[in-house]
Amino acid sequence: LKPHSLLWYSNKAKAFQYGFNLPPDSDVYNNTNVDEQAVADSQIVRFAAVVEQDRGLRLKIAKEVAGDLAPLTPAEMEAFAEYMRRIKDAGVRLNITSTPADSLILSLTIFYNPLILNNQGQRLDGTNNTPVQQAIQDYLRNLPFNGVFLLQDLTDVLQRVEGVRTVYISNAQARYGSLPYQSFAIRYQPDSGYLRFVQPNHLTVLFLPTTD
Description:
Strand content: 25-35%
Shape: elongated
Largest sheet: 5 strands, mixed
């Protein structure tokens, strides 16, 4: 039989149903007479990415809590690992990880139009007090799971915010786990699959007016 593709592993990860048993010798749950909402609630893996490694496949997964990505609990991971052990191809070694977001630190200078924004980055019309910070957070949340964070893409997003004229990123650092922070100038691939500001002071923005 032909080995399954990376996409198959990703889709099967999302099909996992926490608290449900698999029929013998099957990789498909029997949901006969099971309420559709109960099935949906049990499918806790909302994000999955599979990466080929020298010694098998790495499977990164995350669930959704309060509208954001989060790691599975130890009990959920134990059940998921057993599920994958039963359905994976014979001989394939799986490294399954579900970890908190990689930590991001950013320092930016925003040169703004004083007819639109003030020196705190607030809109003068009162409709939004943090349009720049919100655009940054939205960019992070909208990145595909296991997608690459690109400083140029973030700059492009910020320059589309009304009132922003020029963006200068003076510091960009990231880390996963408890490793030291590493500076980067172009791109960062989050080890966990996603990237967040762990502390409020990890995002600092200086606003300077410009008439250009």
